[in-house]
Amino acid sequence: MRAAFRPWGVVLLALSCAAASASQPATLRIVDDVAANRRSPFYLDLAKYPKQRRDLPVGVFDSGTGGLTVLDALLRLDGFKNGTPEETADQANDLAAERFVYLGDVANMPYGRYGGEGKVDLLREHIVKNVQFLLGPTYFASADAIEPTALKDPVKVIVIACNTATAYGLEDVRRALAAWNLDIGVIGVVDAGATVAVRLLPADSRNDTLAVMATEGTCDSEAYPLAVRRQYRKRFRRDDLTIVQQPGLGLAGAIDEDADYLDPTAEAPRGIPRYQGPRLGHPLCPIEPSLWKEYRFDARGNRLLCRRDSCGALVAVELNSVENYVRYHVTSLVRRAVDANAGQTIRAVILGCTHYPYYTDAIREHFDYLRSLGEPYATVIAPEVVLVDPADATARQLYRHLVRRNLLGSRPAPSAEFYVSVPNRHLPQNRIDATGCFPFEYKYGRQINQDVRFVCGIPLTAKLLTPSTSERIRRQMPAVHALLLDFQQR
What is the pTM (predicted TM-score) of this model? Predict the structure, then answer.
């Protein structure tokens, strides 16, 4: 791609990396409200927070269903001799005695868009509110409930199962917990992914590129280049690695079937504001007709929405399937490497969004396809590109934390509760469309520090999942699926 990719181009570790935003972050009033404002809907009586926490659940949150891939990694972890720090697999799940509380902030997703809309502070507030929900003792029994009167347990540790939330909110969460005098650990996915990716590079690595596929917000934050640089310097004692980032505009939203990015009923291009994904002439993620062969879009049915003029030239192109989003972003990532790093090879790709591991096969397949086209792709793409899922490393960090703090659970089997956020129907100022969602302009147009519940945390019922999402969870994450069914049948 061309200069349109300026914000997320190539990062050389020899150069300094600065955070995307130079402005001072706003003060979040919710931090004080949780601890001291009894009139606030977010107030918690922290003096009553349980002192004995071993059998409390582990809290996990994400912007949607993507974080379920992290929960799945927690349920599959077998890297230790159970109950000890000894790194010896023993054919038994290391976290088998844990309970989990999962929150998907579906009403406010996708998180990756907040930076581009100039609403990073609003995103930071969402993240702290998610933590408040996990720490709190109540939830809304349904979307129609007026108050959160149903009871749940608070949590003993928090896993931020979202790369964008980790990049922008990890330090906010740590500061908030310190302000609340709660000694509760917080684990994010970014450092875990960076550590694994650097370990995968060969010892004689001299001509390699490490790639990152993440949301536009995560790319803007420079979180992965900074984390990778720390790990690369620690291992190799030099700064010659090249990092290429690709902002997955709309990919996470399409996977969660957000109507701003994918509409199964659409038969023609919808246009702005109804469609927010890559398109012809997009200022940051344009679809380039010159790369049509590389994209190899699936044009069957309504998977690709096009409009042509009277001469047959394309005047509108919109992606309308997850696979086409994958093909666009993989192609764009490789073109970055081709245009800026002739002769260097992509050996590892960090999947810097928890939604992306759902589509590892499609991602790998398109890398293989591009490589099959010959030069320059055959040089830029290694024969075996390793896709790095930070979830496994995150699971290991959680286990080590629980062992270190003597917090491993003692239950006979794992269990989980699942919640999602929905727009608060009883808040007069809320704008909610016919599908029950926030319109795009309202979602990203709200102001911080209003001390109102824009959203409600409710149980994740079967009706709140689309058939395709339910099937994906059942097929790809049977352990999560079993716990979800058990929760929904209680």
Answer: 0.88
